[in-house]
Design a protein that fits this description.
single chain, 492 residues, Fumarase C, Chain B, domain 1, 2 domains, two-stranded parallel sheet, two-stranded antiparallel sheet, 6 strands, 3% strand, elongated, Aromatic_Lyase
Length: 492
């Protein structure tokens, strides 16, 4: 009898109701690692908001519903009770705002944007019709991925991308993957559906989730380097970090103290370690705190009703809640605080390659005369860091004047989210190079890591990396180390 094949692990189910979606859950759905399910009671809020919008439009001027938008806000579209007139206006509004230009968003980001938009609609302030909202749900459940062109958002609602998504749902634009039957568009649906920063929020959420795991993995790698270099434990002593009121720093120091405990090395090699080992808590803590604050803001935006106008229980309110100044500032903070973590990793790489610090051959090279060992890895890391330096720069200081001067400010949160995404795509190479060097150093003194909390991390890396020290192309080792970083985060 052939052995039975175990069923695949069940995909976690995540409830969408407009109030409790987390950034980690959003990233999991976007990457097809979890399945969404709408809370049935949320549809009541959707229907009530749509009825409120239709009623308000009938009773007076409602921006985008029976008027133009932007500088055309004072232009009436005529009799909104005339279905033909209103429907034509809705289609024109979507068509005119669908720029459909720029790079195509990844499947993960496109899925994430769809999930964010649905969750926001479920919060009950948009006025989007139930038919359009349920069509969006159908597309998500069918894993249909739209073709979304990225350009056209500046941190004051992702109008162009969401117009393209709406026209995809109605069958006027092509699906990139799978697809569903055409969805009926209510004559009041155009602006309410577009009035969201769903793409920006999804981009920020996915990048923040990746950055959080990278940050934890970098602590594990830093601990391996500390052990390989016989670092002094006192830099992570609790007494140091309770002497000033920096709770985030104390938390990082406690993690490092635990990860480096139990090493079988001798006495610390130096009276005082170089900065690369000594100031890890001080450098990592701001990044950790910034990412925590960013995730909190992302979750607030993903679970909020920020549409303009906002359909409330008693009135339709025109406002500026779509302006993402807070998110832009949090994204700037996350990027500018993450960058020093990477430069400190580069500093530790330099320590590992220096014989007077490591006690090993220069560049952790082989015994062959003139061997270069890992010399070229410093060039790789500095190349990556020079690129990331640009992405780390703040974007929220920009200014703008558009729509005939009536919209004279923007947050540029969209650009900040994309920059964070680019950072977390390239940054693992920096940490992975340090990991490759730390493993090569520890292979010369493996007893130091035995019995420590990071012994398993060392073994995972050592099993995957080529033990050969003779000069050779290093790309395969670096790529393997990059692939392992996500798992290393669990050791912290």
């Amino acid at each position: 009898m052939s052995p039975s094949i175990p069923p695949p692990p069940a995909t976690p189910e995540i409830v969408l109701d407009g109030t409790r979606l987390t950034a980690a859950e959003l990233a999991a759905i976007a990457r097809s690692r979890a399945s969404p399910r709408v809370d049935p009671t949320a549809w009541e809020r959707v229907a009530a908001a749509h009825e409120g919008l239709v009623r308000a439009r009938r009773d007076g001027a409602v921006y985008g519903a029976n008027t133009g938008v932007g500088a055309n806000r004072g232009v009436s579209i005529g009799d909104a009770s005339d279905a033909v007139t209103a429907s034509a206006h809705a289609k024109r509004l979507l068509g005119s705002h669908c720029a459909a230009v720029g790079p195509i968003e990844s499947d993960d980001v496109a899925r994430g944007a769809m999930v964010v938009r649905l969750n926001q609609i479920l919060a009950g302030g948009s006025g989007v019709s139930s038919a359009l909202a349920r069509g969006l749900e159908d597309a998500i459940l069918a894993d249909s991925v739209p073709t979304l062109h990225g350009w056209g958002a500046i941190g004051t609602a992702d109008l162009s991308v969401l117009a393209e998504l709406a026209l995809t749902l109605t069958g006027d634009r092509p699906w990139a993957q799978r697809g569903i039957a055409r969805v009926a568009l209510a004559d009041s649906d155009a602006l309410p559906f577009m009035s969201s920063s769903a793409l920006t929020i999804a981009t920020a959420a996915i990048a923040a989730a990746d950055a959080t795991r990278l940050l934890r993995a970098s602590l594990v790698v830093a601990a391996l380097t500390h052990i390989a270099l016989d670092g002094a434990a006192e830099a992570y002593d609790a007494a140091v970090h309770t002497a000033v009121r920096r709770p985030g720093q104390a938390e990082v120091a406690a993690i490092l103290a635990r990860l480096t405990s139990g090493s079988r090395g001798g006495a610390p090699a130096r009276l005082q370690d170089p900065f690369g080992l000594r100031v890890v808590p001080q450098v990592h803590a701001p990044a950790s705190e910034s990412l925590t604050a960013l995730i909190a803001l992302v979750e607030a935006e993903a679970n909020g009703a920020a549409e303009n106008p906002l359909v409330g229980p008693d009135a339709v309110l025109h406002h500026g809640q779509f302006h993402l100044a807070a998110l832009a500032a949090a994204l700037d903070s996350a990027r500018t605080s993450l960058y020093p973590v990477l430069t400190l990793s580069s500093a530790r790489l330099g320590l590992l390659l220096r014989p007077e610090v490591s006690g090993l051959r220069p560049f952790l090279s082989s015994v062959d005369a003139g061997s270069s060992g890992l010399m070229i890895t410093e060039y790789v890391v500095q190349d990556v860091l020079s690129t990331l330096r640009t992405d780390a720069a703040p974007v929220s200081g920009g200014s703008v004047s558009i729509s005939l001067g009536l919209e004279e400010h923007a947050s540029f949160a969209t650009q900040g989210a994309r920059a964070l995404g680019r950072m977390v795509a390239a940054a693992p190479t920096v940490v992975a190079v340090e990991a490759v060097a730390a493993v090569r150093a520890l292979r010369n003194a493996p007893e130091r890591v035995v019995g420590t909390p990071v012994e398993g991390a060392y073994e995972q890396l050592a099993d995957a990396l080529d033990p050969e020290e003779t000069d050779r192309p290093l790309g395969p080792d670096i790529e393997r180390a990059v692939a392992l970083l996500g798992g290393l985060a669990d050791f912290a």
